[in-house]
Amino acid sequence: MQKRHLAILGSTGSIGTQTLEVVEANPDIFEVEVLTAQNNADLLIEQAAKFRPNVVVISNEDLYDKVFAALDPLDIKVYTGEKSLVSVVAMESVNMVLTALVGYAGLIPTVAAIKAGKHIALANKETLVVAGELVTELAQKHKVDILPVDSEHSAIFQCLVGEFHNPIEKIILTASGGPFRGKDREFLKTVTKAQALKHPNWSMGAKITIDSASLMNKGLEVIEAKWLFGLTPDQIEVVVHPQSIIHSMVQFEDGSMKAQMGLPDMRIPIQFAIGYPNRLKSNFPRMDFAQFPSLTFEKPDYETFRNLSFAFEALKVGGNMACIINAANEIAVAAFLRDEIGFLAMSDLIENCMKKVSFVRIPTLEDYIETDKETRRLALEFV
Ligand code: NAD
Ligand code: MG
To answer: What is the distance in A from the centroid of ligand 1 to the CA of 331?
Structure first.
């Protein structure tokens, strides 16, 4: 297997640190060229000292001096500032970019990486939510793969290996239901951020954990799936599966259905994406069916968890609607995490932005950038 030279954007986060575990266990296959972080300078320095990348980026400019002082003696280049992510992903020595930063911030560096012909291991689902059409077309044009890291999309991708010539009838995205599964709006009115941050099955960054509680995460994943696998809205079904053992399923035109299963462990989809097409040996815990005597399934509650309905609506409407939802949601989640708005107000805020932000039917990259700005402005007024 040809060595993979990785740029890991967001290396200090939940996905980033788990990616480095996979890298560490497979030193013959992976080489780290670039590590980046927003604020966690200490962990970035520690990671760089261990993995010896060519370059690190610390996005928060106030922390540049500290990181430079620590890494310059090790002959590791240190960059900061908005443009640095865009330049490091295009470095000659990089051949794959793993996007593990959060939110809209992933879009521009991912576009730059694709234009530079780098394969993408995509954790940052927001990139495809904001500008799925543009990004997937660009990837085709530059002949780069977008390999999903998100567990559901990895599951679908794994089901499709060997079947790429067979049309998909539909996909079934599984959802754990999050910490508030089965609760009603009355209950959700007063839930706190501490309650929302307690995910039953996965340990993840704060933003995606709140998205999981509000089912926005599943909504974003519906949109992500559309673009990754070229589906229409009626080919995407969501089913709540609280045990998170089946990570998603594909139904083919003969009625046969394939599922991918395993313990909820993000290192598996991360490793599948960066090691594709090979399955690398791992020592991750194995699943024991005796521990899971029943796997259960139920319909999602679209009325209580309105964000999921918004996502399907965005798919039908097209244009920049998903970009509007994403920006509004980022502001809503940040405000909820600062205790400035309640749990249900997050959906109200998103709905408000969907109604008021200027709709663009066939957006360019500039339109997406403008939509993101306009939505954030309006959403902040609402907060
Ligand atoms: P996290 O908050 O744990 O880590 C985010 C990383 O990105 C950190 O290294 C941080 O420094 C960096 N970062 C954050 N904002 C940035 C910005 N504006 N500019 C530059 N760098 C920035 O997040 P996470 O849970 O690892 O999630 C990362 C992405 O992966 C998200 O898009 C999320 O939806 C997706 N994802 C995560 C999981 C999971 O299990 N955590 C599962 C599926 C998908
Ligand atoms: Mg997921």
So the answer is: 16
Q: Is the CB of 211 under 6 A from ligand 1?
A: no
Handedness of CA 214, 235, 361, 313 (dihedral sign): negative
CA of 174 to the centre of ligand 2 (A): 9
Question: Final residue of a domain: which of 148, 165, 195?
Answer: 148
Which CATH number fits the domain that encloses residue 114? 3.40.50.720
**What residue numbers bound the domain in which 196 lies?**
153-265+291-313
pTM: 0.98
If one counts the domains in the chain, the total is 3
CA of 36 to the centre of ligand 1 (A): 11
Q: How close are the terminal C-alpha atoms of the chain, in Å?
A: 51
> In this predicted model, what pLDDT tens digit does every residue of 240-255 receive, in sequence order?
999 999 999 999 999 9
Tell whether 199 and 232 lie within a shared domain: yes
**Residue 121 corresponds to which tokens in the numbers above?**
């291991």
Closest of 354, 328, 322 to residue 341, by C-alpha: 328
pLDDT digits (tens, 9 = 90+) for 307-339: 999 999 999 999 999 999 999 999 999 999 999
Ligand nearest to the CA of 201: 1
